[in-house]
Structures are given as C-alpha cells and as structure tokens.
Amino acid sequence: MKKSILLVFLVFIFSSCAELQQVVNQLPQTGPISNTDIASGLRQALDLGIDKQVSKLTQKDGFFKNELVKILLPEELRKVDKTLRNIGLGNLADEGLKILNRAAEDAVKEATPIFVNAVKDITFNDAKNILLGSDDAATQYLTSRTQTELYNKFKPVINNSFSKVGAEEIWSNLITKYNALPLTNDVNPDLTDYVTGEALKGVYTMIAVEEKQIRTKISSRTTDLLKKVFALQD
C-alpha cells in the first residue's frame, strides 16, 4: 500500500515538474539578468538617445529644419509675422524666425554634461519603474532631474546668441515697425525666456523619439544589453 502511495506521489511530482518546465520554456529567453543589468540598460538607452538625437539639434538647422522641434513665433508675435508678410516684409520676418532657432541650436550644446550626470544617478528602483512605464518614462525621468538646471544653462547662452547675431536689433526693428502700424496693439514679448522654454521642449522631444524606438522596435536595440533588458517589457 505504501509503495502504491509513493508511486502515485512520484508520478504527481514528475508530472508537475514537466508542466512547470513547459511554462518556463514559453518565457522569453533573455538569459540571467541582474538589477545592475537593468539599470545599466536604461542608462545605455538614454545615453544613446542623447548621443544620437540631441546632438542633431546642435547642428545648423537642427531646430529650424526639424518640424518636430522647430521653434515658431510666440502667440503674441504671430500677428506681427502675418502683418509684416502682408505688407511685403516677409524676408525680415523669416530672418527673425531663423534667429530664434539658431539661438536654441547654440544652447543645446550645454545640455549633454547635465544629461550625463542625471543618467549616472539612475538607481535600480528608478530603472525598474522606468522600464515598466510608458513609452517616454525615461524621458520623463530626465525631465524631472534636469529641467531647472538646463533652463539656467540655456537662458544665458540664448541671450548671448541673440546678441551675437544682432537679434535684439532685428526684433526691435520688427516690433517697432509693427507697433507703428495703425490699429495694432503694442507687443513686447520676452523672447529669451520663450526660446529657452521651446529649446527645452525640443531636447526632450528628441530623446523621447529615440526611447520609443528602442521600446517598440527590436532593430533599434543595437547592443546585447539593450536586447536583454528591453525584452522584459515586451
């Protein structure tokens, strides 16, 4: 009787083991992965986004010819732009718009060291939440850690860039011409603050582009570590 019970018990155990092995075999085979690997994988993904996408913004026309991040005129100046074009001053309006984007391109060169420091500080808990988060969770993390510091770095650079190309004179001329027109309300926007904010948006937009590609396209995972880590969120 005891032998029969033992036999039934062993059959049950081996049967359960076989079922368990079948389940294991169906899981993604990414190999052993540690907490350190996960954090390193997230750092690598962010570094890739910074190197591949943010660097594009520092080049000539990096903002101006990129429709995702091109800086348009602030709301209060759009009527200035439209009015100037209507009276034949379209070239002057175009030049003013280009200057705003050139200043942003200059400023973004200050971003990389700040991003690098923020990426180094990612802990495993940060990485786990980011990995299982939304398509732009890593970008949101960077935004929360770098936005204030980047704003303070960008603003003086943009101000200097404006001075370098005579932006103040050009925009003063534009706005003076507009304010001199009959039936218009005077405008005097803070262009330095506006372009600083738009430059920041552009930087985070491009990092988010790369992050989403890594999350959703296996072909964008260009290293073994990226493949192993991001397989966990597939």
TrEMBL record:
InterPro entries: DUF4197 (IPR025245). PROSITE patterns: PROKAR_LIPOPROTEIN (PS51257). Keywords: Signal. Residues 1-18 form the signal peptide. This is DUF4197 domain-containing protein. It comes from Winogradskyella haliclonae.
